[in-house]
Write a structure and sequence with these properties.
The protein is built from 6 helices and 9 strands. The protein is an alpha/beta fold and 258 residues long.
């Protein structure tokens, strides 16, 4: 089974880390062609640590290479290299396993939808931090990062309904008031990613009551080729999210217009 855990508290806010996981089911390992290092490269390690906020949490422990919750049903299992950065992921994964994983995908989405429905019923609104990270050194570990093309933080907002435009602006400004490594934060929208399927699905289905913002941190907080983390930088990213909660709380308590 795809592993994930839910931590619920009395809050309208959620932190999702759906690509943090690295586990592959033991039963599926005979069909897995990728090494742990190859998988880690495209996973989002340490985003679960960033999601450890005083709000609801949805954390996926299984690798996206087993089942990608951020893809639609057709693409959630990487059966072709075109679905996985040119990587050959599986060696003849049995159809029965594909069907089982697809059923899990549908069940997980049903559970997520129920959680958001309950949050809306209780608070009248919801907000999801959809936390991810991305590689900026595609050519090799010594590549110099093209900072014009790779912002420190990319916000995926393409699927958010227009009614939340002011909230997005306030959210982005809350980061711009902070610093990372002593520098003003370069945060931009939809440069590297516009938001994945989970973002699109939930914004389409529940977008009148709240929104999902995908937050992609450039992997400055780790060596993206070896996976070695920088704990202080991970803490700094988490602190940015924590600080932004003040802006969100103020907006929904004072500025939100139905």
């Amino acid at each position: 089974m795809t592993k994930y855990h839910i931590n619920q508290v009395d809050s309208p806010f959620w932190a999702f880390a759906i690509h943090d996981g690295h586990q592959i089911e033991e039963e599926l390992m005979p069909y897995m062609r990728l090494s742990e290092t190859e998988r880690l490269r495209e996973e989002d390690p340490f985003t679960a640590a960033m999601a450890e906020l005083p709000i609801n949490q949805f954390i996926v422990g299984s690798s996206r290479f087993q089942l990608d919750i951020n893809r639609n049903l057709e693409n959630a299992i990487y059966l072709t290299p075109e679905q996985a950065w040119g990587l050959h992921v599986w060696n003849q994964l049995p159809e029965a396993e594909v069907n089982r994983l697809q059923k899990e995908h549908a069940m997980i989405y049903q559970e997520i939808e129920a959680l958001i429905e309950r949050t809306i019923a209780q608070f009248g609104f919801f907000f999801i931090f959809d936390i991810h990270s991305y590689n900026a050194k595609r050519e090799g570990p010594t590549e110099e990062i093209d900072k014009d093309a790779n912002p420190q933080i990319n916000l995926g907002t393409a699927f958010i309904q227009p009614k939340w435009r002011h909230l997005i602006d306030l959210f982005s400004e809350s980061f711009q008031k902070e610093t990372l490594e002593g520098e003003t934060i370069d945060i931009r929208e939809n440069v590297k990613f516009k938001g994945g399927y989970l973002n699109q699905h939930l914004n389409n289905q529940f977008g009148q009551s709240g929104c999902v913002i995908s937050i992609e941190f450039r992997k400055d907080f780790m060596d993206e080729w070896t996976g070695v983390p920088d704990p202080s930088k991970i803490t700094a990213c988490k602190q940015l999210l924590l600080n932004s909660l003040k802006t969100l709380t103020h907006y929904f308590e004072n500025d939100r217009k139905e």
